[in-house]
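User: Please predict the structure of the protein below. I'd like the answer in structure-token form so I can feed it into my own downstream comparison script.

Assistant: Understood. Taking the following sequence of 151 residues as input:
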Amino acid sequence: MMYNCFEKGYSEENLIYANLTFYYFIANLLYPNKINELMTTTDSEFPDNVVNYMRANLSKKLTIKDLAAEFSYSISYFQSLFRKRTGISPIDYFIQLKIQKACQLLAFSDLRVKTVATSIGYPDPYYFSRIFHKAMGMSPLVYRRINKISS
């Protein structure tokens, strides 16, 4: 950065800018790992990282507090940033991922509804059925009957 600045001339503005970037350069020499730590989650990577975390934890009951803490954000900022990037709240998105996984399990396996429910973090199969029906417009058994892929 400093070198590129000097290539553009030695105006007062360029010299001041080069002087200020020198501190950044020294800080990176003294603390090389700090820059990686600070740059781990950029705003553009944020939704992908959160979704990957959600997918890896489908069998758990994650709260907004858990998600915000995992990514070191306040709850309100986490919610607003996620909604801004995806158009949906984090918990609604997490529920959609769970239902999507349930649909896969129902269509491609012979697992009982209770087992499917437990595998995506719903220990109560009746509650799971209500959530599934609300999202898909039909019960898990009807969904399976209509969408079952024979192996």
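That's the full token string. The chain has a mean pLDDT of 85.
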